[in-house]
Amino acid sequence: MRYQITHQTRYGYGGPVSLCHSIAHLKPRETPNQRCKLANLRINPWPSVVREHRDFFGNRVSYFSVQQSHLQLEITATAEVEVWAPALPEPAATQPWEKMRTQLQDSVGAEVASARLFTLPSPAAPLDPLAAEYARESFMPERPLLEAALDLVSRIYRDFEYDAASTTVATPLAEVLQLRRGVCQDFAHLAVSALRGLGLPARYVSGYLETLPPPGQPKLRGADASHAWLAIYCPEAIHTGGWVDLDPTNDCAITDQYITTAIGRDYQDVTPLRGVFYGGGEHSLAVSVDVDRLEHN
Amino acid sequence: MVANLASAPPEPTGLGDSYRPLAGQFDEMRTSDGGLRPHWQYLIDALRELGSEGIDSRWQEARRLVRDNGVTYNVYGDPQGMSRPWELDPLPLLIRGEEWAGLERGLIQRAELLNAILLDLYGPRSLIDKGLLPPELIDGFPGYLLPCHGAPAPGDRPLVLYAADLTRDASGAWRVIGDRTQIPSGSGYALENRVVLSRVMPSLFRDSHVHRLAGFYRSVRRAMTRIAPRHSDHARVAVLTPGPRNEAYFEHAYLANYLGFNLVQGSDLSVRDGALWLRTLGRLERIDALMRRVDDVNCDPLELKENSLLGVPGMLQAVRAGNLGIANALGSGVLEHPGLMAFLPALCEQLLGEALVLPHLQTWWCGQREARDFVIANLDNLVIKPAGSPAGQRCLFGAKLDAEQRDELIAAIRREPHRYVAQEEVQPSTAPAYINGMLEPRPFVLRSFLVSEQEGYAVMPGGLSRIALDTDTPMISNQLGGLGKDTWVLASEPERQETLIVTADANAPAVVPAVVQESEVSSRVADNLFWIGRYAERAEGLVRLLRIVIIQITERSSLAAEADADCCLHLLLAALTHQSQTFPGFVGEGAADLLAQPVPEVLSLISDQKRAGALPQTLQALGQAAWSVRERLSNDTWRVTNDIERRQRLLTQAPPRGLGRALDLLDPLITSLVAFSALTHENMTHNEGWHFLEAGRRLERGLHTASLLRSTLVSVSPDQGESILVEAVLGVTDSLITYRRRYQAGTRVGAMLDLVLQDEANPRSLAYQIARLSELIDEMPGNSLSTRRTPAQRTLMRVMTELRLAELDLLARPSEGGRRRDALDALLASVETSISALSDAVTAQYFRHEEQPHHLIGQRSEAEALRGALPVTPLAANPAGSLR
C-alpha cells in the first residue's frame, strides 16, 4: 500500500520568539516492510540551520533552528511511504516465552545485544510490579511467546477504555493502570512495561494509521492523528527483523495500514517534535495529520 | 637525594616520636616496625629544625594564604555557606620518583583503556556486540546518554581529562578505588596547595627537588586547543561553571584564570548557526572549546535533561556539527559506572593487547548470575554501590545492615540486579598529618590527574591528597570534611623553575598570545562589575557618614546639648536614613524619639545583619558580586575583598555596644574600602569590564553626594549650626583640607557648594562624577561611534549643563521666608532623578538578560481506537487464524 502523509504542527506565541531550537522525529524510517520514498520538512519562518542525523535506534532525526523573531512556527512534514503487510510466524508455533528469555541471556551478538537493551526499564516505561503482574495472566508457564503476547494485547483492549480526556502526555504509567483508561500511547507504554517486567524485550513504535470514513461519507481533512503501538522481540519473526508489531489500541498485529515513523524505548526517545525557545510567553499548539492512500501504479 | 641513606637514620625527637602506624595498614612515613622510610628523612629533619613553634607559624601562614586567596570549598548546609576555607595540612605527601614512574605507567594505560571504551560505546558498540560488556551494564546506566551516540570526538580522544583516586593496600601496592571521568575536579586545589606550601616552606621545597606542576597545565592548555575544531592559537576556550553557588566554584575561577580561559555560565551562552557563542556586550563571540564543570546530562536541555538551567539548548548539535569540542565529551560519565571495573582486565587485553598494570578494587556486578550469588552470600564483607538512579542513593556497608535492611537489599538486588555493584571494603593507607602540634597517621586518598596529549596521556607529577580527620573513616569526601595535602614527587635531580607564562622552548616567541581576548566581557560579568563599583562606593560613603555622625554625637555630649549642634546632628542623622534608604529611621514616623536617643539606631545601621540598607548587607552584597566575578579580580584585590568580608563578620558577630568601639571598627574598614577602590583602579586593565565598575562607582558617589547635600543644606540652619554642618559635609566628602586651603574665611555654604557641587577638578564633587560618567559612557560599546546619542548620553549632557549653569549665589541664598534653599533643592532633586535614570538606561542597554528558554509543549500520539473502521476484520476473534 502506498500513502502520502502530511503532518502539520503549528505553534502560536503570545510574544515574539527570538530563537528556537527543535528536534523532530517526523521523517519515517525504513523497516523490513516499509520503504520511505520521499520525506520533506517544511518550516516557516525559514530556519537558519537544518541538519539531519540518525539517532541511536537508527531513526531519522531533524534538527532546525529559527533565529529570526517570530510569532508563529509552522512545521509541515510530508512523506510518501510504501508498506507491505508483515509476514508473521504462527503464534502457536513460537517457542515458550521462558525459553526465549533464557536463550537471550545466554547468547551474544549484535541482534541479541540490541534486543536485551529493550528489556530494561526506561523513563516513560518504568518497571511497575502491577504491570508485570497484569502480564502474568497472559504469560502462563510454557505458553508460546507470540500467543501470550497477542493475548496480553487483547486483554488491554478489553480492560482499558480509550479516553482522550483521561490522560496527558505526562500521565505516569501507574496512574493509567489505576484509571484503566487512556490513549494509544498509554496502552503502548503499559504493554512495553508489562513485557519488560517479565524480562522480555519490548519497544515503543510511533507512526500513523490509515483511517477510513464510515461507508458513503467523504474523508475529513486533518482528521487523522499520529499513532503509537509496540513491538515484541520474537526470534521466529525472521522476515521482520525478529520483531512483531502489536497494537493494543485496536487489538491486532499491524497491517499494511500502519506507517512506522520511529522506534525507541518509549515515547521520550521518539517525541515527534520537541523544542526550546527564547521569549514568546504563553503558547498554543495545533496539530493536523492526513494519511492518504495513493493509487497503485 | 636522601633515599640512599643505608644506615638507620637518627630518630628525630618531639614531633613524630609517638607516631605509630595503625595496625594492618600501610603507612607512608614509617614501616610496620616503626622505622622511618628513608625518603622522609630530609623532611623530618627539616621539620625538627623548625621546631613546633616554627611549624606552627608556617601553618598559620599557610592558613592565612589560603584564606587570603579565597580558597573555598562550599559545603552544602554549612552555616559559613558560600565561603568555607579549604583546609590545608602543612605536611606534604612524599612519593619517590622511581615509584611514581611505575604508577604513572599504570595510570596512562588506564586512561588509554577508558578512552578506548568510551569511543566504542558511543560508536560501534563492538564491545557489547561481542559480549565483552553486557548491554544491561551500559544501557541500564543513566550515565550512558543515548543522544550522545554518534557525536564526533575530536582527535579520537573524548576523554581529555581524567582523574583516578588511589590508595595502597596493606602490602603497599597502589590501587585505584575510583575513576573520575565526568568532571575530574580537584586539580585547581592541587595547584593552590602547591602554591601555598612552596611559599611557606620555600627552602624545604627547593631542596627536596620536587617535580613542578606547570608543565601539566601547559599540556591542559594544549589539549583544550587541540579539541577546538578551529585549531589555532586563536581558538577560544571557556570554562563552563554551574555558577558561584557551586561547591567547587573557587576552582572553576582559579583554573580559568590560571589557564587564561573565559569563565562562563550557561546563561552567558547560546547556540546559533550550529555553533556556540558567548554573549558579550553588544556582540557574540564564538567559543571553540569548552572545559565543562557542569555534568553532561545538564548541558543541553534540548536533548538531555529538559529542566536543566545550567546548560545551553543546542550544545549537542554544535558538537554534532563539528563546531565545538568539549572536555570531557558529553556522555563520558558512563565510565564512572562502578561495575565497569569488573570488566577492565578483559577489556584491556582485548583493546590494548596487554595486561592491566594498575590493580583496582575487586568488583562484582550483580547483573551476572555468579557474581550476584557471590555478593548475596558474602554481603557482610562488601560495600554495595547502586549504579545510577535514583540519584543520591548512598553506598551500603553490608556488615552494618540489620536483618531487615539486609533482606530489603537482597530483594532489591534480585529485582534489578543490573543496578547493583559490590566492591571489597578497603582500609586506606595512612600518611602523617599535622594535628594539634603532633604528627599522627590518618587515612588518605590520592587523586591523580591526567590530560590527553597528541600521543597518549600526561600525568600531573603530584596530585591532590585528601586525609580523613578520623582514623577509621571508610570514605573520604570533601563534602564530609577533610584536609587537603600537597603531594611531592621527589626527583633525583633538581628541576628548573617554570611557570605557565614562561615557555620552556627557547625558540618560542617571548609573548604567548592570550587565548582569550581579555576585553571580552559577558553581560553578566559587566552587570556584576557595575554593582561591585556601586556597592563599594555605597559602603564607603555610608561608613564616612557614620563616622562623622558618631563624632558629632560624642562631641555633642561634651558640649552639653547646644541647640545649634543638635540641629546640625539631626540633619546629619536624617542624611544617614536617606543615604542608607532605611526609612522611617530619623525622618519618618517615630523620628522624634530616635533623634532624642540616636545611638541604638546608629548601631543598628552598623551591625544589623538582617536590615536592608544597613552596612553589613551592603558589604555582603559587595562580597557576593565580587565572588561572582572572582576570576576578574587580581589576587591582591581578592585579599582586600577577604579583608572586607572579615571586618563585616567582626561587625555582625560581636556587634559593638558603644559608639567608641564602633568607631574603632569603622576606621580600618574605610582603609580596606579605599584600598579596594585603589586596587580596582590601579591593578585592573582599563578595559570594557573596568568601565562598568568605574561607572558604577561614579554613579553611586554622585547619588550619595547629591543626597547628602540635599538632606543637610536645603534646610537653613542657624549660623553656628551651619558651619558645623558644612564642616561635617566636607568631612564626609573628604574635601576639608582643600576647602581650608582655598577658602580661609571660615565655613560658608556658597564656598562649599563651589567645591563639592561644581568643581570639576575635585574627585569628590558632584560635577566631577558627572564629567567622569560622561567619558565612561561614551567609551562603552555601541556609544562611541553612534551618531545618535543614547538615552544615557543625553541624560548626562543635561545634568552636566544644569550643574555648570547653576549660579552658586542663587543656590546658597535662602528663599523667601528664609527657612529653605528651594533652588538648591530643585537642582539636587533633578540630579538625583537623572542619575537613577542613568542607571536604568545602562541596565537596559547592557544587562538585559536574555529571556529564559522554555520548552515547547508536547504533542502526543492519540490516534483513536478504530473500533471496526479497519477494512480488515479485527484479529481478536481468531488471532491464530488470520495472522498468516
UniProtKB/TrEMBL annotation, chain A:
InterPro entries (UniProt xref) = Bac_transglu_N, Papain-like_cys_pep_sf, Transglutaminase-like
Q: Which residues form the Transglutaminase-like domain?
A: 176-250
Output the PANTHER family linked to this UniProt entry: BLR2979 PROTEIN, BLR5614 PROTEIN-RELATED
Can you say what this protein is called? Transglutaminase
- Tree of life domain: Bacteria
Question: Which SUPFAM superfamilies does the record match to this protein?
Answer: Cysteine proteinases (SSF54001)
Organism name: Lamprobacter modestohalophilus
Please give one Pfam family short name. Bact_transglu_N
Automatic annotation (TrEMBL), chain B:
Q: Which InterPro entries match?
A: ATP-dep_Glu-Cys_Ligase-2, CP_ATPgrasp_2, DUF403
All residue ranges annotated as the DUF403 domain in the record: 522-847
Q: Which domain of life is it from?
A: Bacteria
* Annotated ranges, domain Circularly permuted ATP-grasp type: 92-468
Q: Which Pfam families does UniProt cross-reference here?
A: Alpha-E, CP_ATPgrasp_2
Task: Note down the stretches annotated as region Disordered.
Answer: 1-22
* Name used for this protein in its record: DUF403 domain-containing protein
Source organism of this protein record: Lamprobacter modestohalophilus
